[in-house]
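From the methods appendix. Each design record in this collection lists the tokenized structure first, followed by the designed amino acid sequence. Records were kept in a plain field format so they could be parsed without special tools. The example shown here is representative of the layout used throughout.

RECORD:
FOLD TOKENS (582 positions):
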């Protein structure tokens, strides 16, 4: 059956008055925002961002994509043309809650059908609060091929931020593979299992430096044409600063696998924002950043101005062989390409397995005084999610409470709103706990078998939910991994972190109930737990998943639904797949 054609006028969008009313109702944003329009074409191009040439997804020829800059209350309209020859696409606006527009969250299989090659799709939504956010592909493992970028939302002039700076700059951090998305995904879904391995490079603002002399993936006769260190694509990113000035660095991570440590040689960084919420300021030498997180830090250009300094990001939480990414902090008027007098490895980086330091930074992130969102005193439901590695019919999978997730062919939002009862497993009883009394999180699972499901967690609208994320041993002895979990459509309060197995009677006594930070992405450390609380007050269907591409692809995620009856009529532009072909 042919897929229905989408009309050229976006087929179905709320008008600006309705969107502004929704933003006003939920976040007290005055309905005075501008409409900011963007016209994007996404396609593959040959580029060499780490000096190794491969196919890279670009937006209007750029990688990373253009930064969206807006003010709180503005309406963003992105007209996106899929110019891939054979690939679908969907774009998620990471950290934007999509209040009143859940169909534009951009998650294939959850909120929309994918955008087919040659089609044009229009996203339209309000940015309802200031902060630092990102966007990226949310189709398969496509994000790591380059469809990424940042979103800056400033507050109204009448509501100044609680810190000052002279200039505002972006730092988008990524890791980079030379194999294609399809090759890696095929390996993950094969018997025998083929792991994606460690990334070949790390990148800062889309630029890395792969060592072409160590190239093991291309025959020597072809290396000179495929890997070229003099290619302008991989010249180091340079941040030029004026001595004495203060810079706000908006740092975001969209790595496919890696947790990172970010540092600037000889300089302190003052953390002031996390995931769009103001932080009680604290100073660090290095900033730990997990995939899906954003931070703002203040950098004072107060060091010796007669030289330049190294900026680096390096892998933590894994015994990785990938070398650090390097950029240059250039003190004006030094020449931008003047090499710092120290070695690239002069930045002091924590040991990869120094979990205590990473945990200490997480615990230090608290809501800024005067900007604390009151924590609901109690929760209506507690869900404990055990993260495990398993096998299903011989295939290696990641699971939550022994259930490995997979997308349905018909997006949940459409199936629920149109009562398509056979579009996914409506009878699924979502497991809200595991056998914590008997399960040994420090040992390989005695029974590695799990099940798969496309069932969802249905929450009472406006209820308060606690989620405990519990890490455990993988299928390799003495091994547990860091998992950054991202919640769509909501922010949550971070109640606490801990080592070992969560104790349901004792650990809640140690929750931060005074000034917990709100975030949309949070890390769970190896053999540890993280507790969060959110209010299910945004009608729709929302993903909650590990932000590591391969882990989510292998089933590490769940889906929450609440208030589906309060969702307005769905736009036909999101339909055309599964049972929506009718």
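DESIGN:
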């Amino acid at each position: 059956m042919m897929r229905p054609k989408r009309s050229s006028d976006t087929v179905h969008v709320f008008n600006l008055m309705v969107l502004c009313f929704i933003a006003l109702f939920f976040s007290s944003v005055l309905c005075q925002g501008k409409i900011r329009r963007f016209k994007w074409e996404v396609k593959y191009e040959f580029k060499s961002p780490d000096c190794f040439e491969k196919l890279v997804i670009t937006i209007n020829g750029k990688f990373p994509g253009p930064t969206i800059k807006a003010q709180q209350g503005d309406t963003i309209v992105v007209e996106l043309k899929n110019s891939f020859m054979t690939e679908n696409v969907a774009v998620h606006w990471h950290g934007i809650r999509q209040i009143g527009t859940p169909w534009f969250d951009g998650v294939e299989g959850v909120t929309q059908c994918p955008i087919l090659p040659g089609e044009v799709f229009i996203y339209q939504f309000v940015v309802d609060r200031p902060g630092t956010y990102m966007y990226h592909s949310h189709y398969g493992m496509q994000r790591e091929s380059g469809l990424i970028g940042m979103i800056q939302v400033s507050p109204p002039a009448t509501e100044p931020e609680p810190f000052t700076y002279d200039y505002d700059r972006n730092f988008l951090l990524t890791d980079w593979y030379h194999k294609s998305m399809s090759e890696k995904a095929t390996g993950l879904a094969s018997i025998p299992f083929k792991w994606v391995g460690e990334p070949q490079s790390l990148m800062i603002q889309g630029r890395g430096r792969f060592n072409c002399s160590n190239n093991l993936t291309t025959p020597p006769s072809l290396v000179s044409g495929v890997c070229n260190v003099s290619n302008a694509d991989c010249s180091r990113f340079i941040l030029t600063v004026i001595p004495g000035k203060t810079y706000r660095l908006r740092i975001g991570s969209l790595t496919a696998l890696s947790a990172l440590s970010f540092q600037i040689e000889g300089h302190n960084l003052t953390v002031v924002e996390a995931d769009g919420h103001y932080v009680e300021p604290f100073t660090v030498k290095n900033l730990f950043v997990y995939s899906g997180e954003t931070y703002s830090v203040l950098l004072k250009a107060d060091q010796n101005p007669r030289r330049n300094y190294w900026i680096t990001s390096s892998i933590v939480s894994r015994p990785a062989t990938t070398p650090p990414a390097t950029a240059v902090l250039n003190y004006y008027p030094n020449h931008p390409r003047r090499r710092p007098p120290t070695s690239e490895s002069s930045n002091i980086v924590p040991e990869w397995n120094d979990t205590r330091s990473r945990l200490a930074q997480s615990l230090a992130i608290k809501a800024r005084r005067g900007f604390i969102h009151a924590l609901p005193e109690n929760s209506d439901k507690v869900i404990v999610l055990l993260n495990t590695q398993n096998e299903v019919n011989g295939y290696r999978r990641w699971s939550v409470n022994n259930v490995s997730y997979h997308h349905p062919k018909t997006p949940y939002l459409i199936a629920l709103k149109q009562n398509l009862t056979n579009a996914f497993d409506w009878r699924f009883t979502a497991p809200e706990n595991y056998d914590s009394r008997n399960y040994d999180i420090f040992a390989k699972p005695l029974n590695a078998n799990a099940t798969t499901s496309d069932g969802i967690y249905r929450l009472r609208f406006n209820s308060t939910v606690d989620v405990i994320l519990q890490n455990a041993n993988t299928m390799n002895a003495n091994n547990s991994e860091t998992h950054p979990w991202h919640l769509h459509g909501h922010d949550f309060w971070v109640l606490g972190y801990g080592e070992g197995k969560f104790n349901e009677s004792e650990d809640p006594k140690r929750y931060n109930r005074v000034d917990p930070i709100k975030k949309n992405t949070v890390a769970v450390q190896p053999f540890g737990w993280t507790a969060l609380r959110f209010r299910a007050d945004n009608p729709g269907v929302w993903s909650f998943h590990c932000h590591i591409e391969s882990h989510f692809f292998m089933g590490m995620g769940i889906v929450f639904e609440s208030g589906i009856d309060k969702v307005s009529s769905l736009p036909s532009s999101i339909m055309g797949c599964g049972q929506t072909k009718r």
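APPENDIX NOTE: The mean pLDDT is 92.
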